[in-house]
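As described in the Methods, two query proteins were run sequentially through the folding procedure within a single session, without resetting any intermediate state between them. The first query and its resulting structure tokens are shown here.
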Amino acid sequence: MLKLESSLVSVDWLKAHLHDEKLVLLNATLPKVTGSDSPPEIQQIPGTRLFDIKNKFSNTLAPFPNTLPSEEQFNEEAQNLGIDNDSILVVYDDYGFYSCARAWWLFKAFGHQQVAILDGGLIAWKTAGFPLEEKQHHSFEKGNFKGTYNPQAFQFFNDIQSLKDDANSLIVDARTKDRFEGLLPEPREGLRSGHIPNSVNLPFQQLLSGNQMKSLVDLKAMFEHLNPQNKMMVFSCGSGVTACILALGAELSGYENFSVYDGSWTEYGTLTNN
């Protein structure tokens, strides 16, 4: 019986298990907030289903982007994708590593542990020369997925107001160094520059080698240097998307005491003026 042993799988692993009856393959691509010079991808891995973060798996009525959906909404949309409680989920995106980790962390937050990210995403799959199909919608029966939200998975504005001054907590920002230090304007119009007081910077790109995650040895060394006292970590970014890449790196490195700031700098920078 197919079972995931890690939150990261290779393209070779996926190729070998692509047609397993329990496997569900999800594309969770979001357009990059900083823009992209490349045209939209017109191909996908065969059998892919679209995990629409922006319109289906976010609270679209919230004032900030990519906001955590309700348990009811998440379960309904997961069922609409044909996902069952015993489904084996593999998530990827067109950029290699960008928004796929947000989908992975959402499933973790709603209690589904059999979910992994395709290391290198569509780029690695194409580089390996594996089969592709034109982007399309596949038909499937409604699933029976029913998750339960774990409130430890995400932090919110009021939590951050307390945690930023907590000596036992560490807020880690996944944005680039220039954005963290306010040397570059934020890509979202009207959003001021800066960072959460007492937070530290670990750009998500530092966890990557090209479009894939660095080795486990490198990841562990990075997090040990970042957090030698093993504090509870809260990962932040622009809008709660690339912060989830840090969450993935932390989990792969053996950490358990961490969460993601849902609103991230978009929320914090809007609601404060210090």
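Immediately afterward, the second query was submitted; its sequence and tokens are:
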Amino acid sequence: MNIINKRYYNLEQFSKNFKDAKPYPHIVLDNFLIDSFFKNLNLENYKLSQNTGRSFNTNLEKNKWTSKNEILSKNLKLIIDELNKKDFLENLYKLTGITDLFSTTEGNTSLANYHEMYESGFLGTHVDHSSEPITGLPHVLNIILYLSKDWKSLWGGSTILADKNGRKIEKLIDFVPNRAVIFLHTPFSFHGVTEIKKSPIKRSTIYVDYYSKNKDPYNHFNLLFKKVWFKHPTTFILPNLKDYFQIKNQSYLKKMIKHKVKAFFS
């Protein structure tokens, strides 16, 4: 069963829009899944045990929970499987021009594909892990699929695309049900989620990342920052520089310094 809207069978038609988008290449694809499939997703009755995933509640990741794939419903697993198929990877190549794309062989041991956020939740601006967990090869693309069918934009939960330093919001992408966002992942692709206001339902998304065997994956893009890849952990940007010197934020400081040093010498 092909659950992706046939409009997106050939993403090459969106390639120019993807490559020209700012602050870094991205594309927004509405009605991504076919209507008959999306309408049958029933997330509100989909009860997950909080003991089987991972909860986040810090000053940079608030009221967020991520899954383990083995507990997901059949339909959610079907979406994740579809986004990891060879055919879809070839479609992503047509969109991006990035060669030797592959999905992680790590499964969901380290990386979670299903995410939930709740009222007052938010995600600070950050850049994700740089490398595939086993091979260490470059992390080059992300896709986020918005699942909550009755979500209203006034509740917040928009995706933030920030500048190369992670401090200035350059674009907000509203959470629209059945919308997919594909964006280039580089060491400077800072992004996050705006605060969720009074929401009666959870903000549910599927997130999948992609990798490349090409260690110079960005050379064909016209970027506003260095076209380099280097290894780094998930790195958050704290709201104020003075926040880095609080004892509770020492781990953020170390990661930020490591990122800055590698960026400078790359």
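The two ends are 44 Å apart (CA to CA). We note this only descriptively and draw no conclusion about the first query from it.
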